[in-house]
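Please go through the protein record below and see whether the fold suits the sequence. Record follows.
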Amino acid sequence: MKKAILGNSGSGKTTLARLLAAGSSTAVLDLDLVFWNAGPVERPSAERVAEVQRFCRDHDSWIIEGCYADLIEASFPWNPELIFMDPGREVCLSNCRHRPPEPHKYRTKEEQDQNLDFLIRWVADYYERDGLMSYRAHNDLFGRYQGPKRRVDEQTAAQPGAQKAPATPPFLT
């Protein structure tokens, strides 16, 4: 399995990656951890691209997920299935408001919630901004990719309050 999952914050990238990798030896890379140094300070482009390529080369089965068009594109020599999570602004905003704790990024849920107002504004701006983390960049990358791909605009696996996600999300069957 080789998959590259792209989309806005709150689109369900992490949830989908976890569902797809569950019960397997598939390696999962959260691209937030590649793009940023502590601070957060953006890492140099060549350094972060090299890290993604090393990850892809070093694992037989992998999933990368994030909102960074350059890092998703760095995986294209391995011909992954590109999954563009595009459930719409309101789903992303709702998912962000109901985001579970992310201990790999924040020490506490309270620390995570201190960034919620910024995250909500940033997620809402996705369709207007430019750059690597914009709808324009994601849509362009999806259009240019010649490998296997799908756009997911119906999201069920990451709905807040779901009791248990299905083994295979309905939109992937």
About this structure: The helical segments are 13-21, 32-35, 45-58, 69-73, 89-97, 109-113, 116-124, 135-144. The first helix runs from residue 13 to 21.
